[in-house]
């Protein structure tokens, strides 16, 4: 009984400090996980909610450099620069997720792009892919000798 009366308060404080440390660490891990998830979902074309209550569509965003402003389109033709951390949450992460097939379909239907590729002004990703598919050389064979 003498031990508890002398050291009971100290033991209680130590237990309380350990609990506070554990709770704080757990909360920080949860926030970090949420921030990583938000950065993964924040892609160009995704609809987002800004901290000011505005909804918009991401035009450009660099998750690696949060000091660089993000460009958000509020309405057609109305683009604003906002601090990257002012993006509160992604409203609909599936909208704006562009697959390679979507990109190639848009590339084929875009008249200016097709004209630029035809003139040789623009190199096409699909042209590079097609050239690689028809290339008969073995990449592990090394450089060819010139005769």
Description:
The protein is of the alpha+beta class. The chain folds into 2 domains: 2-92, SH3 type barrels; 100-134, no CATH class. The chain contains 4 helices and 5 strands. Strands 4-3-2-1-5 form a 5-stranded antiparallel sheet, with no helix packed on it. Strand 3 and strand 4 (78-82) form a beta hairpin. It starts with a helix and ends in a 13-residue tail after the last helix. The mean pLDDT is 77. The chain crosses the membrane at residues 6-23. Residues 115-147 are annotated as: Disordered. It comes from Microbacterium allomyrinae. InterPro entries: Preprotein_translocase_YajC.
Short description:
This protein has 147 residues and is α+β, with helices and mostly antiparallel strands. It is built from four helices and five strands; from the N terminus they run H-E-E-E-E-E-H-H-H. It folds into two domains: 2-92, SH3 type barrels, CATH 2.30.30; 100-134, no CATH class.
């Amino acid at each position: 009984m003498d031990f508890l009366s002398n050291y009971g308060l100290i033991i209680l404080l130590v237990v309380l400090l350990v609990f506070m440390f554990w709770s704080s660490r757990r909360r920080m891990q949860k926030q970090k996980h949420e921030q990583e998830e938000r950065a993964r979902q924040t892609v160009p074309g995704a609809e987002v909610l800004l901290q000011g209550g505005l909804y918009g569509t991401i035009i450009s965003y660099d998750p690696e450099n949060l000091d660089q402003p993000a460009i958000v389109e509020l309405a057609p033709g109305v683009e604003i620069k906002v601090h990257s951390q002012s993006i509160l949450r992604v409203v609909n992460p599936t909208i704006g997720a562009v697959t390679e097939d979507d990109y190639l379909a848009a590339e084929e239907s875009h008249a200016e792009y097709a004209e630029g590729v035809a003139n040789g002004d623009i190199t096409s990703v699909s042209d590079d892919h097609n050239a690689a598919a028809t290339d008969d050389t073995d990449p592990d064979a090394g450089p060819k000798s010139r005769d």
